[in-house]
TrEMBL record:
It is found in: Cytoplasm. This is glutamine synthetase. It comes from Neotamlana nanhaiensis. It holds the Pfam family Gln-synt_N. Belongs to the glutamine synthetase family. Keywords: ATP-binding, Cytoplasm, Ligase, Nucleotide-binding. One of its GO terms (cellular component) is cytoplasm. It catalyses: L-glutamate + NH4(+) + ATP = L-glutamine + ADP + phosphate + H(+). Its EC number is 6.3.1.2. The keyword Ligase applies. Residues 89-340 form the GS catalytic domain. SMART domains: Gln-synt_C (SM01230). Signal peptide: none annotated. One of its GO terms (molecular function) is ATP binding.
Length: 340
């Protein structure tokens, strides 16, 4: 019999920005295969995570995905959903709101973030009491003058790949100390699972470097001339992938126009500080779409047009601190409402 370490991950009840929580269960298995079927439910004290009252504090953790833990011997990362004691989804459970049982929707998320120094409370590359050179030379840069934190970013990429996530790339972003990684999955729930697991791996790595990750969409202040952080959502379904119709694409885009407020409500806290109409964003009060337009709410990628309107759309409004489950759920609802 071998002992294995199962790290159960879940989202807490803080609102509107939830946090990752985790705890380890050590179990004995004779021949563990790393499958969901071998896992049992667990529970936690919801009164400590804003998910229950002290007099009835147990919440259930139901496993939904499992990945090898690249940093632990005989370890696994277990993504879970939070359920009430009666087995119904907890109000904090955004995953349960996704209407994509047949995995028809594919999502590619572009997760931007800042790497922060715990001592200075500033992004890497920022001097105490001042500012680095203006943005322009940081995007996709190389070399110690403009590139900060590559060691962490590379290690994170390796860990995500070792965990079996469909990790698609990394790059330094426009602001100093700002980076991005990309993940893609066929199925909205799977896409959300992998973003949360990749965030966990990134945040856990910072513990040994004296850093922390800042997902605030405008951590340097809303009036500062620095790009904010988003989590652009690239999405498609069978219709978008195969229709070959500009009219259909425009109808789907137009379906987003009357529900701007509903989307912004789940696209991340403090997003009004980022969606100003500057720094490659559309204004939070506006709605627009256009081919290859990074200043629009929704971008129709040029490659989609070149393939005869067979491809995907990119919603550029979600903030870096948004919940991919809630973002995907809202996008799916709107796309399904389109008259196509």
């Amino acid at each position: 019999m071998a002992k294995i370490k199962l790290e159960y991950l879940w989202l807490d009840g803080y609102f509107p920005t939830q946090n990752l929580r985790s705890k380890t269960k050590v179990e004995e298995h004779e021949d563990f295969k790393g499958t969901l079927e071998e896992l049992g439910n667990w529970s936690f004290d919801g009164s400590s995570t804003r998910q229950a009252e002290g007099g009835s504090s147990d919440c259930l953790l139901v496993p939904v995905a499992i990945y090898p833990d690249p940093d632990r011997k005989d370890g696994y990362l277990v993504m879970t959903e939070v359920m009430n004691a009666d087995g119904t989804p907890h109000v904090s459970n955004g995953r349960a709101t996704i209407d994509d049982e047949d995995d028809d929707f594919w999502f590619g998320f572009e997760q931007e973030y800042f790497i922060m120094d715990t001592e200075t409370q500033l992004p890497l590359g920022f001097p105490v009491g001042g500012y680095p050179a203006p943005q322009g030379m940081y995007y996709c840069s190389v070399g110690g003058k403009n590139t900060h934190g590559r060691h962490l970013v590379e290690e994170h990429a390796d860990q995500c790949i070792a965990a079996g996530l469909n990790f698609e790339g990394i790059n330094q972003e426009v602001a100093c100390g700002q980076w991005e990684f990309q993940l893609f999955a066929k199925g909205a729930k799977k896409a959300g699972d992998e973003i949360w697991v990749s965030r966990y791996l990134l945040q856990r790595l910072t513990e040994k470097y004296g850093y922390y990750i800042e997902y605030h969409p405008k951590p340097l202040g809303k009036d500062m001339d620095w790009n904010g952080s988003g989590m652009h959502a690239n999405f498609s379904n069978t219709t978008l992938r195969t229709c070959g119709s500009k009219e259909t694409y425009e109808k789907i885009c137009e379906a987003f126009r009357p529900v701007v407020d509903e989307h912004i409500a789940v696209y991340g806290e403090f997003n009004d500080q980022r969606l100003t109409g500057d720094h490659e964003t559309a204004a939070i009060t506006d709605f627009s779409y256009g081919v290859s337009d990074r200043g629009a709410s929704i971008r129709i990628p040029l490659i989609t047009v070149e393939k005869g309107y067979k491809g995907w759309l990119e919603d550029r409004r979600p903030a870096s601190n948004g919940d991919p489950y809630k973002i995907a759920a809202r996008i799916i609802k709107t796309v399904k409402s389109a008259d196509v």
